Amino acid sequence: MKKIKNDRETEAASPVIGVMLMLVVTIIIAAVVSGLAGDMGLDKKTGPNVVLSEPVLDFDSDVTTGDLISVTTYAEDIETGDEDWVQAGYYNVHLPSTVNDQHGLTFTHLGGDPIDLKDLQMSFNSNDLGIVVDYDSVRAQVSSGAFEPVYEVGDSCWDGWGIVTRIELSYYGDPGREVDFTLDELADMINNKHYGYFVKISPETEDDTIIRTGDQFKVYTDDGGQPWSIVAINDAGITQSFSFEFGSGNNWILSHKPSGEILGQGDLVFPDKTNE
């Protein structure tokens, strides 16, 4: 479209072109806002869409305390060259306890997203007192603690002894019983065992913490006389304890740590079997 102004011919912008420019600017702004929103969404952790059963409570427990293993270290005397046992290298180590039917709460995954036991935490409360445990919390009642051998074959001893020549393992109080593992295997049995409260029980797959539809997991509790208790060691090595009460008034909340979403909650009722 042409206009005549001051005897000169000029080109004027078409209204259609103006509208198109406005649309382009609007689209660009929308794209930038959408991109920012998308980036913000990447940092937002949302909880899993999962359906869990009501927990089945197991009040019975069958825990077998681990055997006591005696470790005897032998070394060569520097002066005489004779081999003898080293007092500083004699000590006892508890094998991990065996849990056959530990009491606690059993959940079944009924449908929805898979969940990782490492992302869960359980809080228990009773009479304004409470405790929170997660996958990394250690059960003090079954854990034998971290184990590091005092000596290994080839190490140099002190107190007049030379090089460690051999290390023997035996069952404390039953020396005639054969030990079918080495010192390294003993350390592996103790240090690499999971002593936590969250355990996948069906199907039992070693090192698998993912719970899918149809799978079951259990939140263990500890022995505390008639009712349950929790005796947990946290990441700082501090032991915390909590005891449940008979009857009602004991609450549990299962939640997803990354998102804070509650996956289930309810009350626990403990029958008083004191007089049984």
Automatic annotation (TrEMBL):
The keyword Membrane applies. The chain crosses the membrane at residues 12-37. Keywords: Membrane, Transmembrane, Transmembrane helix. Residues 11-127 form the Archaeal Type IV pilin N-terminal domain. InterPro entries: Flagellin/pilin_N_arc, Pilin_N_archaeal. Pfam families: Pilin_N. NCBIfam families: arch_flag_Nterm (TIGR02537). This is Archaeal Type IV pilin N-terminal domain-containing protein. The lineage of its organism: Archaea, Methanobacteriati, Methanobacteriota, Stenosarchaea group, Methanomicrobia.
